[in-house]
Amino acid sequence: VTMAAAAGLEGMTAASWLMDAIGALRRVPGTKQRRTELEAQLREAQGSITDEMGVISTEIDLKEIVDHTRKVIKGLTLPQAFAEFIQLDHSPTPEDLRKEAREQTEKNPLSSIIPMAVHDTEGKLVAKSPGMMNGPDAQESAIRHLIARHEGMRRELTVSGAIEPARWMIQAEHPLFTRHFEPLAEMSPFVPPGHADIYAIGFARFFGGDFISALSILVPQLENSLRHVLRQAAIDPSSIQRDMTQMNRTISVMLDKDRGALEKIFGEAIVFEIDNLFDFKGGPSIRHQLAHGMITTGGFYSADAIYACWFIFHLCCLPLLAHWDVVTQAYDSL
């Protein structure tokens, strides 16, 4: 507490000392009142953390990538454009991501030794990773956080260089409405019965640039679709509670209890990306952030949010690629 006071009782340094103090006092009986006082100081210190944050930016020329994307999409029929759109990116394998992270630690060893902390927009600590020098478990945690950081940069480049230019081009050449997405949603085995209209509305909002509506509609549907796919594989995605009621598993529980089954269905790369994008606390954790109303207006228009909408569209259409001629025929009547 003295060290926090020396730091001015504000900012990241003071918050770190106060958290250490609160953690120590939790092991001491009869200190509840003192902990309450320190927790109030902690919240005040965390409120000023964002003032200490800086921006590290790098200029990247994406003109060639954007031009290539537009050339690929331009002049296609709507089904052809959708087929190209869903193949703009693919999920990297966990092995490749870990290899890249380890290579980066060799190039920048200092960054891998220093522990990382993830704060939300209010300054609260939501995740932390130990440095690479604290044993095998700590190394795995540090690698996972490095992967999350690198994946954030990859999504930024993919959205800016490919997804957004392609979305703009498709929308300009084919003014889209909900009915244009109904055939995809109705034919996709990823979409449960009775949910096709919901997906179609979400996709229409996405292509129209209404990312607030698109993300709010599509992310809850993703979790339910994962349960639907597991049921199709004869796996019950529910748990029996102590009172003998049955509760559907959340995405976090499915990624834990049913991960092997999901990997057999989707492959390791896609399941790992679902985890990194929607659930992992060291990443954007979109499912949790959205479910608890913590995404700001700007957050809905971030690269992570736009990529998440594209990724769900990708998952919906991916099983149809092998039968895209049937999809094309369905669009002939529109």
Please estimate the helix content: 55-70%
Which of globular, elongated, flat, extended, rod-shaped describes the shape? globular
Count every helix, treating DSSP H or I runs of 4 or more residues as helices: 19
CA-based gyration radius? 23 Å
Multimer state: single chain
Order of helices and strands: HHHHHHHHEEHHHHEEHHHHHHH
Total strands: 4
Strand percentage: under 5%
- SS content category: mainly alpha
Could you describe the largest sheet, including whether it forms a barrel?
Answer: 2 strands, antiparallel
Unreliable segments (pLDDT under 50, ≥5 consecutive)? none
Main β-sheet, spatial strand arrangement: 1-2
Structural summary, described in words:
- Helix 6 (78-85) packs antiparallel against helix 9 and helix 12 (211-232) packs parallel to helix 18.
- The protein has a two-stranded antiparallel ribbon. Strands 3-4 form a two-stranded antiparallel sheet.
- The radius of gyration is 23 Å and the shape is globular.
- It has helices spanning 2-6, 11-25, 32-46, 49-52, 63-73, 78-85, 94-107, 109-113, 136-173, 182-187, 196-207, 211-232, 251-257, 259-266, 268-279, 286-291, 297-300, 303-317, 324-332; strands at 116-119, 125-129, 238-240, 246-248.
- Helices cover 65% and strands 4% of the residues.
- The chain has 19 helices and four strands.
- It is mainly alpha-helical.
